[in-house]
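Here is an idea for our session: we take a single protein and study its fold together. To get us started, please write out a protein record for me. Start from the sequence, derive the backbone structure tokens from it, and show both lines together. Go ahead whenever you are ready, and we will take it from there:
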Amino acid sequence: MAKTMVKTIDVDKTFHGTKGPLHVLKNVSLDVSAKEVVCIIGPSGAGKSTYLRSLNRLEDIDSGQIYIDGKLLFDCENGVNKVKMPAAERSAALLEVGMVFQRFNLFPHKTALENVMLSLVHVRKIPSSIAREKALILLEKVGLADKMDAYPAQLSGGQQQRVAIARALAMEPKIMLFDEPTSALDPELVGEVLAVMKGLAQAGMTMLVVTHEMGFAREVADKVVFMFDGAILEINTPQKIFSAPDSERTRQFLQSVL
């Protein structure tokens, strides 16, 4: 039986803004096994991105439990984490989780190669010469070895996103999170990013993907999660979700996007 790489139990989160509280995650429980590709779909405002960001502490949760690679990192109640763990140990566990965002967030004054090298040199403390070799291999993996000396402004959106994927892979994560990685791209550039993601899936990377690309979810996902109004309404195989969903909300959503 495959090891569970991501496990959340009853994850709950409320934002408190000027317009009052907004309950964005409602007891979200999900398991992601090793080498599994899980796609999260649903309308805007469903809580998909907030859930993804909660897994690597970009958002603090109010309550619930988060396990990464079998280790309980967060067990929260009223916003307080009850897990007593050295900060360095928690940070090391979170480094196993790579993330790619909607926006590429590349450093504009650094080349593609330098952007990929940064974390290797400054976080992993790898000598520059070795970091350069690793970064080159990763740029080749995403099809951009010939653009190693290009600055972000000289790259298309799709190329920038592929550099961002290479940068995340540089940390050798066990789990990759993708938060709508193609939503900021022109339609003709979407395919090149999805092709890199398909390659990662085929190579056995554990992936949790928030996406509006239903074709990708149908083709690549092992299971599809439908979120609505902060909650998971349905989890099933792509075949079941896309052909005969159990939830009427899932059916309505798919009719509106397909």
Summary: The chain has a mean pLDDT of 95.
